[in-house]
Structures are given as C-alpha cells and as structure tokens.
Amino acid sequence: MTFLPVTSLFAALLTLLLLALSIRIIVIRNRERIGLGVGASKPLEVAVRIHGNFIEFVPMAVLLLALMELAGAGAMMLYVCGGVLFTARISHAVGLTKSIGTSVYRAYGVLGTFGVMLFQAAYLLGYFYGNVL
C-alpha cells in the first residue's frame, strides 16, 4: 500500500479546520437556541455558509492532491498546493466572518482555492496526456 505523506499532512490539517468550523456552528446554535436551520441568526447563516463552502471545495482539492502525489509530483509542488489551499480556506472563513461583502481575505480564499484546483487539474491533465496517451 502506498502512503501519501504530503496529502496526509494536509488532509489532517484541513480536517482540524473542518472540525473548528463545525464547532463554531454548534456554539452559535447553542448560544442562540436554534436547533435546525438558521432562524433569523445572521452569524449562524454565515457560519453555515462558510462550512458549506469548505465542504463543497476541499474534498475535491484533497483528492486532486492525492492524485498528484501518486503521479509523482515533486514534494515542493505538493507542499505549495496544500499550503495555499489551507491558508486560502482559513482566509475565506475569516473574510466571510468579518464582512458579508468583498474583502481581501475572502478574495484570497476564493482565488487561492480556485487557483490551486485549476493548477491541480492542469497538472493531472498534463500527466494524462504525457503518460497515458
């Protein structure tokens, strides 16, 4: 069985971040006594959306990171992709928490996440065309 050390590191870090985002929702739910949905709570709505956005993008990015590592991508490239993804997800959460509109943090979060995923997809397409066809 092949161990993927770089992917494992970032999967673990991103899992801790996911748990922190989840706990944040629980704390707000308890404080505002909202068991289901978001009620009229703007902080809960924002926390749920941050969590949802994380769930929408991070699993695919981690899968792409694992595929890159299996394809033999260099460690530095993997660390940069994982590091940018991790910091982008933190930045996105901070940006949405501080401002519902645009912010530098939110912009970095979105651009960082999309940029990493676009790079990962391009790398894997290049690998496919260079090694499979």
Task: Describe the protein in words.
The protein has a single domain (5-131), classed as Membrane associated eicosanoid/glutathione metabolism-like domain (Four Helix Bundle (Hemerythrin (Met), subunit A)), CATH 1.20.120.550. The protein is 82% helix and 0% strand. It contains four helices and no strands. The chain has helices spanning 5-32, 42-70, 75-98, 104-131. Helix 1 (5-32) packs antiparallel against helix 2 and helix 2 runs antiparallel to helix 3 (75-98). The two termini are 26 Å apart. 24% of the residues are buried.
Concise synopsis of the structure shown:
The protein has helices at 5-32, 42-70, 75-98, 104-131. Helix content is 82%, strand content 0%.
Major beta sheet summary: none
Radius of gyration: 17 Å
CATH architecture: Up-down Bundle
For this structure, the CATH topology is Four Helix Bundle (Hemerythrin (Met), subunit A)
The sequence of SSEs as H and E is HHHH
Unreliable parts:
none
Per CATH, the class reads: Mainly Alpha
Question: What is the CATH superfamily label?
Answer: Membrane associated eicosanoid/glutathione metabolism-like domain
State the helical fraction.
Answer: over 70%
Number of strands: 0
Which features characterize this protein?
single chain; 133 residues; mainly alpha; Four Helix Bundle (Hemerythrin (Met), subunit A); 4 helices; 0% strand
Task: Compile the SSE list and pairings.
Layout: H1 5-32, H2 42-70, H3 75-98, H4 104-131
